[in-house]
TrEMBL record:
InterPro entries: DUF4336, RibonucZ/Hydroxyglut_hydro. This is DUF4336 domain-containing protein. It comes from Clathrospora elynae. PANTHER family: METALLO-BETA-LACTAMASE DOMAIN-CONTAINING PROTEIN, YALI0C07656P.
Length: 274
C-alpha cells in the first residue's frame, strides 16, 4: 500500500488504548482515503472471558501490538469486517495460524485477485447461508449481523459484556482525532477532508451522514439495509467503535438511532405492510 494511504512506520503513530481495561483494546492509526482524505483506521481486540482474543479489522501488526497481544491472551478469531478491511489479514494469519478467520462471502475472490497470500477462511458470511454459530465461547459474548445490502458487505459485531458495537464502514464518526493524534497533523485539515468530514459527522442532526447512507451506502437495497439496521438497533450497546473516526462512548445507541433514523423509520413502515 502507498505510504499516502497508510503510514510507512505505523509503530510511531499508532495509539494502543484499553477502552475497557483488559477486555477491549483499540489500535488506532492514521489512514488517508484516496491518499488525501483523513479518515483514520482502527483495529479492535476483544478478550473473551475464556482468555481467547478476537481481532476485528486488523491493522499493522507492529512489535508493540504483538507485545500487547501476548499480554492479553491467545488470538483465536480474526475478522475482516467488510471487503475493504482486509489488507493486514496475511500478517496476522501468519503470526497466529491457529486463529479462525471470518469475513464476508465476496472477500476470498477479491483477495485472490489482489494478492498471493493464502489466508483460509473458517467462516464466510452470506445472505443465502447465514452463520448461526462460531463457537460456544464466541456465541456467548457476541451478537452479529451480516449486512449484504451495504456496498462493502458489512459485518457488525456487538460485544454484549461491554455493550460495544464494533463496525467497519456502517457509520463514521469523523474527524479522526485519536487516529491522527501522534502524527502532528490536524485531522481536520484540507478541503477534501473538511467536505468528507461534514458528510460523515454524527454532530447535530447528522443529516448529511443520513443522506450519505441513504443515497449512497444502501442505495442498491434500502429495504434490506433497513431490516439489518433495525435488528442491530435491538441490541443493548452503549459504545460504538468505528473504524473511521473517534470511539463513541455513553450515548452510542442514541447516536446510532439518529444517524440511522431514515432506515429505522423505513423498517417500521415495512413492518406495517407485511
Amino acid at each position: 500500500m502507498s505510504s499516502k494511504l497508510v503510514p510507512s512506520d505505523p509503530a510511531k503513530v499508532m495509539v494502543i488504548r484499553e477502552v475497557v481495561p483488559r477486555v477491549v483494546t483499540t489500535l488506532s492509526v492514521p489512514f488517508w482515503r484516496f491518499g488525501r482524505i483523513k479518515v483514520g483506521g482502527r483495529g479492535t481486540i476483544v478478550r473473551l472471558e475464556s482468555g481467547a482474543l478476537a481481532v476485528f479489522s486488523p491493522v499493522a501488526l507492529t512489535d508493540d501490538v504483538k507485545r500487547k497481544v501476548s499480554e492479553l491472551g491467545e488470538v483465536k478469531y480474526i475478522a475482516a469486517l467488510d471487503v475493504e478491511h482486509h489488507i493486514f489479514l496475511g500478517p496476522w494469519h501468519e503470526a497466529y495460524p491457529n486463529a479462525q478467520v471470518l469475513g464476508p462471502e465476496p472477500l476470498p475472490e477479491k483477495r485472490a485477485k489482489q494478492s498471493d497470500e493464502n489466508v483460509p477462511f473458517a467462516f464466510l458470511f452470506s445472505k443465502s447461508k447465514p452463520v448461526e454459530s462460531i463457537s460456544p465461547e464466541f456465541d456467548a459474548e457476541f451478537d452479529w449481523e451480516y449486512v449484504p445490502s451495504h456496498m462493502n458487505k458489512e459485518l457488525v459485531f456487538h460485544h454484549k459484556p461491554t455493550r460495544s458495537l464494533i463496525t467497519a464502514d456502517l457509520m463514521f464518526n469523523l474527524p479522526a482525532t485519536e487516529q491522527f493524534s501522534k502524527t502532528g497533523v490536524d485531522a481536520t485539515s484540507g478541503i477534501l477532508t473538511k467536505i468528507f468530514g461534514a458528510l460523515q459527522s454524527t454532530k447535530g442532526s447528522a443529516i448529511w451522514q443520513q443522506r450519505t447512507i441513504w443515497y449512497g451506502t444502501s442505495a442498491s437495497d434500502r429495504a434490506g439495509f433497513s431490516q439489518s439496521v433495525a435488528r442491530i438497533n435491538k441490541w443493548g450497546f452503549e459504545r460504538i467503535i468505528p473504524c473511521h473516526g473517534d470511539v463513541i462512548e455513553g450515548d452510542g445507541k442514541g447516536i446510532f438511532e439518529k444517524v440511522m433514523r431514515w432506515h429505522l423509520d423505513a423498517a417500521k413502515e415495512q413492518g406495517k405492510t407485511t
